[in-house]
C-alpha cells in the first residue's frame, strides 16, 4: 500500500506540474486518440562499422512526459545482417508547440558488416503504430569498436579483438562556478589536456546534483539553472552531448558513474556538505521516505531504468562510452549512522539494474559499480557486473594485494577507481603525490588489472603542472597490454643483493618488463640481476629511473641457452625505483615456429550467435584445409574439415581465435560470439 500511494502521489504531481508549466508536452494540443508516425529521415545510406548512424522521426501524438516510456515509448525495431532482430530505444529531441508535432532521435553504431533495416515503433498508452522501413549498409573499417569485458583480468577487448588497458584520471565534474573553482576547468579543457599527455581513460560523475544533472531540477554550485519543467534537465542533456563529443575528439574512454553516495546521505558524514538526500528527486517523484526506498520502491527503480534507457538511446552509440558504473562508493550509502540501508536490497537492486541494462544495450558496454573500502556481501558475485572496483587512499603499497585479492576471490577483473595520498587532500606536497601515483601505476602495470589506478585529485595535478608524468607511463602501458592473460607471464628474478621490491613480466611471449623499488633504508650499488624465461632473440635493454624517467642505460643483449639475461645495475638508492624494458628487436613472431604463409580470409557475420560463414582464399586448398577455433585461454574448442559455414551456437559468449590451415598456408582472425 505504501508503494502504491507513493506512486499515485508522484503521478499526480507530475501531471499537475506538466499541465501548469510544460513547454515540451503536447497533451493539451493533440487528442489522446491521435497517433501519426511519419517516415523517418536520414542523410546516411552507408556507414562504416562503429560510426554513428543518425535518423529522426516526426510524430503527431499527445504526451505529458517524453522521457517516460510507460506513457510513450519510441523504439527502432532493427533487423541485423544475420536476420536477428533487436529493439533499440530512441529519445525525444524537440516539440513544435504550434502544432504539437515532436521530433525523436535515433543514434546507433553498427557492429557487423552488412545490411540493416528498421522501423520506428511508437507505443502511447493503448495506441501503437510503426513507420515505413528504412535500410542502410554497414561497411568495413579500421576503427577498433567498443570496449568489452571478456573475462580477461588484464585487459578489456575491442570489437576487432585488440586489447586495451586504461591509464587516466578521475575528472568527476566541471568547475563549480559559485564556490570558486577555476572556470577554465571544463570538459574540453580537461580532455584536450588528457590527449596532450596521452591519457586514454577518464572517470566522471553523471547526474550529480551539480554535474550533468539529468534528474536534479535545482542543481547546486552555479553552472546549471533551475529547471521548472517536466522531464530531464535540458542543460544537463546539452552538456552531456558536449562531453561525449569532446571525448570522441580526444580519444578518451569514459567511465560514467551514474550516482554517488552523497545523493543518499541523510547526515553530513564527511564534513563537506555531501548530504543531498533531503533534495533527492525520488523523494517527490517516487515517494521515497528514506535512502533504502531508493533501492526497493518499484517507482524509484523504474525511474532509474528510465534514465539508463535515455542514456543508452542518446549516447550509447559512442565508442567513447567505456563503462557504465551504477554507483560511486555504494558501501558509503550503507555503513553510516542514520542511513538504514540494507545490504541485501543494494545487491538485489544492482542485479536488477544490470539485467535491465544488458537487455537494452546492443553495444554491450562494460558494467561496473564501486565501493570505497567495505565489501558488501554478495555484491561482486553478481555475474552481470563485468568489472569490480574499490578506492584506496593513503596506502598505495596495498594496491597490488587488493588487485590479487579481489580478482582471485571473484574471478573477474578489478580496478582501483580512485587513489591518492589521502582521501581529504590535506597534504599538498607535490613531490609526494606525484611519486605516490607513479608508484601505484608502476606496480599495477605488473598485475592483472584492465584499468590502472586513477587519482581523484585532478585539479591539483593540473595546478602542479604534473600531467607530463603520464608520458612514459602511457608508452609502457601500451607495451604491457597483453592479448590474453596467457600472454602476461610472471618471470623469475635472481639478484646479488636483496631487500628491495621487484616485479617482472613477459608480455605476448616477446618483451620483458622489470620494476625494482627500494624502500629498504639502504642504497644498492654495482649489483646484478638475472631474469629467466626470455625467448631466444636479440633484445634492446633500456634502464630508466622510474620516477624521473631519466634513461640510465641502453644496450643490446641476448639470452643464454637457458633463456636467461644478466643485467648490471649501477645504483638503486633508497626511496627510488628502476624500470627496465627488454624489447625484442624482431617485431614478428618470435615463438620459433615455422608457421605456414599467412593469407587473408573473409568470414561473417562478426559478431555472430549461430553460424560463421567463410570465403576461402583462392590460394588455399579446400579439401586439405582444417578449421580450428580457440578460446582466449588458447584452448582448442572446435575443429573440423573445411566447410563454408560452421555452427558455433554451442560456444559460450565471448571472443574466439579462428585458424584455417592447409599445411602450406594459414588464415587467422578473431570473432565475437554474442
Secondary-structure map with pairings?
Elements: H1 2-21, E1 35-37, E2 46-48, E3 53-61, E4 72-79, E5 85-89, E6 91-95, E7 101-108, E8 114-124, E9 127-130, E10 134-139, E11 147-148, E12 156-158, E13 163-164, E14 168-170, H2 187-196, E15 201-205, H3 234-250, E16 253-257, H4 281-285, H5 291-296, H6 298-315, E17 321-325, H7 343-360, E18 366-370, E19 387-393, H8 399-410, E20 414-420, H9 430-445, H10 458-463, H11 470-479, E21 488-490, E22 493-495, E23 501-507, E24 511-517, E25 524-532, E26 539-545, E27 551-557, E28 564-572, E29 577-584, E30 597-598, E31 602-604, E32 611-615, E33 626-631, E34 636-641, E35 645-647, E36 654-661, E37 665-673
Helix pairs in contact: 2-3, 6-7
Task: Report what the structure shows.
Mean pLDDT is 92; it is low at 1-22 and 589-595. 20% of the residues lie in helices and 31% in strands. The longest helix is centred in the N-terminal third of the chain and has 20 residues, at 2-21. The protein has four domains: 36-139, Immunoglobulins (Immunoglobulin-like, Sandwich), CATH 2.60.40.10; 147-483, TIM Barrel, CATH 3.20.20; 491-584, Immunoglobulin-like, CATH 2.60.40; 602-673, Immunoglobulins (Immunoglobulin-like, Sandwich). The chain starts with a helix and ends with a strand. With 674 residues, the protein is an alpha+beta fold. Strands 14-15-16-17-18-19-20 form a seven-stranded parallel β-sheet. Strands 2, 4, 5, 8, 9 and 10 form a six-stranded mixed β-sheet that branches. A six-stranded antiparallel β-sheet has the order 21-23-24-29-26-27, with no helix packed on it. 43% of the residues are buried. The radius of gyration is 27 Å and the shape is globular. It holds the Pfam family Por_Secre_tail. It comes from Sediminitomix flava. This is Putative secreted protein (Por secretion system target).
